[in-house]
Design a protein that fits this description.
By secondary structure, the chain is mainly alpha-helical. The chain contains 17 helices and 4 strands. Strand 3 and strand 4 form a beta hairpin.
C-alpha cells in the first residue's frame, strides 16, 4: 500500500499509483505554466497559492475518474488544471470576503498585497482557466460555465442567508452543494468524459463528486472548529470569527431552538456577540469543540461520504473504484 499526493490516498496497485503520480506531476507543471505572466509581479501573485501546495483533491479525482476510459487521453491533464485553477481563484476571492490572514499555512494574498490585488489575481486565474477550456471544446466550456454559475449562486445564497421560513440547515446544504459540490462534481465528470467513458459512468462519477464535495466541505466545517492551524492550513475559527454559519454552528442553533439547555442558549448568545474580540472568540471556540453540535456535524459528514460511496456500486470492481471508495474514508477521517 502506498500513498498518493498530499491528500494521503492509499493505492494498492503499483501501475495505478505510477499513473496517478505522473498525472498529478503533469497537473502541477500545468498549473505553474498557466500562472506565468509577462509581468513578474502577476506571476508572483498568481503562483502564490500554487507554490503553497494543497491537497490537489480535484485533480486527483480527475485522474481516478479517467481510469474508467482511456486514462492517457489528451484532455485529462488540461481539464484537471482547469478545475484546480478555478478552485484556486475562488480561494483568492474567499480570503478577501473572509478577511483571512492565512491560507495553506502561508500569508494570504490579501494580507500580503491587499484586497484589490487578491481579487484581480483570482480574476487572472479564471481567465487562464477559460483559455485552457477553449481548447477542450464547447461541451467542456458549457460544463464549466454551468458549474461556475452554481458556484457563484451558492456564494450569493450564503451571503443573502435563508429566506423567511426556510430551514437554515437545508439552505446551507444547498449553499455548499453549489460552492463546493459543483466543482468537485465537474472533476469526476471531466475525468470520465475526457477519457471517453460510457455516458452512464460519466453520470455516476458526476453524482459521486457532488456528494463527496458536500462531505468535503462539511469536513472543512468541522476542521474550522476542531483543528489547529497546522492541521487545516488556516487560522482556526476563521469562519466563526467572520460570522459564517457553518454546520456545527447551525446545528447548535437548531438544538437551542428546540428547547436546548441553558448552556446552549448561553453559547448562542455568545456567538451573536463580537467575535472579533480574541478572548470571546477563544471561549466560543473552546465550548464548541466539546459541544454535541460538533458531533452532529461529523455525522452529517459521514452520511454524505457514505452516499458518495453508494453511488459507485454500479461501477466495475477495479483498483480505481477502490481508490474512489477510500477517498470517502479520507474525507471522513479529516472530520475526525
Amino acid at each position: 500500500m502506498t500513498v498518493v499526493g498530499p491528500f494521503g490516498l492509499s493505492v494498492r496497485d503499483q501501475a495505478l499509483e505510477t499513473d496517478v503520480q505522473a498525472g498529478l506531476a503533469a497537473v502541477e507543471a500545468g498549473l505553474l505554466e498557466a500562472t506565468k505572466s509577462e509581468v513578474p509581479f502577476i506571476t508572483e501573485a498568481a503562483q502564490h497559492l500554487v507554490r503553497a501546495g494543497g491537497k490537489r483533491f480535484r485533480p486527483l479525482l480527475v485522474m481516478l475518474a479517467s481510469r474508467f476510459g482511456d486514462p492517457y487521453a489528451p484532455g485529462i491533464v488540461p481539464s484537471a488544471v482547469v478545475v484546480e485553477l478555478t478552485h484556486l481563484a475562488t480561494l483568492y476571492h474567499d480570503d478577501v470576503m473572509d478577511e483571512a490572514d492565512v491560507r495553506r499555512g502561508v500569508e494570504s494574498a490579501n494580507a500580503r498585497w491587499g484586497n484589490s490585488v487578491a481579487v484581480l489575481t483570482g480574476d487572472f486565474l479564471f481567465a487562464r482557466a477559460s483559455h485552457i477550456l477553449a481548447d477542450l471544446g464547447p461541451e467542456a466550456v458549457r460544463i464549466q460555465a454551468e458549474a461556475f454559475e452554481r458556484l457563484v449562486t451558492g456564494q450569493i445564497l450564503e451571503t443573502a442567508g435563508p429566506r423567511d421560513g426556510r430551514d437554515p440547515v437545508a439552505h446551507y446544504l444547498d449553499v455548499i452543494a453549489g460552492k463546493t459540490g459543483s466543482l468537485i462534481a465537474v472533476s469526476g465528470r471531466f475525468g470520465a468524459l475526457m477519457s471517453g467513458a460510457d455516458e452512464s459512468v460519466v453520470d455516476i462519477l458526476t453524482q459521486y463528486g457532488e456528494r463527496l464535495g458536500t462531505a468535503f466541505q462539511l469536513a472543512d466545517d468541522v476542521l474550522d472548529i476542531a483543528s489547529d492551524s497546522h492541521e487545516s492550513g488556516k487560522t482556526p475559527g476563521t469562519d466563526l470569527r467572520e460570522g459564517i454559519p457553518t454546520l456545527p454552528v447551525l446545528r447548535l442553533r437548531e438544538i437551542a431552538d428546540q428547547g436546548g439547555r441553558p448552556e446552549d442558549l448561553e453559547l448562542v448568545k455568545m456567538l451573536d456577540g463580537d467575535l472579533t474580540d480574541d478572548a470571546l472568540h477563544a471561549e466560543v471556540l473552546a465550548r464548541l469543540r466539546v459541544h454535541p453540535a460538533l458531533e452532529l456535524a461529523r455525522r452529517d459528514t459521514i452520511q454524505y461520504a457514505e452516499d458518495a460511496r453508494a453511488m459507485l456500486a454500479p461501477l466495475p470492481e477495479c483498483f480505481a473504484k477502490s481508490a474512489l471508495e477510500e477517498l470517502c474514508d479520507a474525507v471522513v477521517h479529516r472530520a475526525g
